[in-house]
Amino acid sequence: MARKTVLIIDESDLFRDYLKGRISEHSVDVDTAINGLDGMVKMRNSPPDLVILDYNLTRKSCKEVLEEKNRNPNTAAIPVILTAQKIDKNRLLELVPYNIRKVFMKPIKMDGLYATLEELLGVKFHMDETPCIIEAHVNDNIVFIEIAKGLNREKVELLRFKIAELLGLYQIRSARILIMISDMELSFVDGPNLELLLKTVLSGSGAKQKHIKILTAAPFLKEYVQGRPDFKEIEVLSSLQYAIDGLLTDYDPDIEMGELKAEMISERILSASSPASGGESIEMRFDSEGRRPLSLETMKEMGKGLSIAVVDDDFVIQELVKTTFSAINASVTAFSSGQDFLSAAPGSGFDLVFLDILMPGMNGFQVLQGLHAQDIDLPIIILSAVSQREAVVKAFQAGVKSYLIKPLKPDQILKKTLEILKANF
Asked: For residue 252, what pLDDT is reported?
């Protein structure tokens, strides 16, 4: 029986590399294309059994690729899986006649993608189905990795790509890593998975062991790390403030340590009520543009249809955010009070919210409580004028994964936006 063939057309080298390796493990031949023109040529010269096509392409647009595919009798019947970060419903309807079998919005639920590949290729995909949530973000040049529910080996492997993307996006040369583990019981049977996790973080980040901290309430993890000579410089802690102090002090010699209160454990972060412990059991995300700078044209394409809210009583901050996003054709709505924003939030369709913490009348944390009470889930970036340590502790305790320290700079705003919104997984 002839081997099935798949063509992946996507401009994210991280996405292509991961997906090619994963699909190839199941006796499927995989070719990749780096843009629309490259994809058209490869599809015409060697028609595959399936095409995985990203909507945002250069050299030739997604629609142009599909139109040429449809005109060619050798390729017209090839099924297509379409991926997109964001796509207008009307544009999506225009693409329906081109044999698109499934559309996946990024970040992609990988279990759903594999199920579709099984259906279209007739090939069985084997996955580690251990419930697991892994998220990673950068704040103040520290990579925060949150892990909850369990340790899924496949998703731990994906973490290598995520770390590489974040380091490239923020141009971090000397990585500092905080691994936050919550909502799971660990024992000696988890040893092989813990080893994979730590070796993945070390190899993926290139960080020195002394620049890696683990925040956990699980006593076994400390015993495990201390018992492994190859991980002896990695510190396991139960205090978020202590962990941040340890990473920032080495990074910034001007920070005064002060009196460390190791007993100040954030139960919300390390318990089952942690924000990281919710959501789907299989979900891994990472950005697509970490290895090379984005061109202005690419960023303008990303900004089309993007709706941003800035909630800040400072007119200067409002204008800075508006100016930053106007350069990439995104729309910005400014709110001078938390109450005004809460009134407008239901049904607003905002893609991202920049939220100031210190505002008169209703502060940022009260706004977060109001959103939670209305069951409104929006990507939030906290704007804070307080110190690094205070910001990270308060933000994580409030369930917010990303924050920016004032004064703000346009490049910081755009990088943080890319981190949150330009996700493949």
From this structure: 47
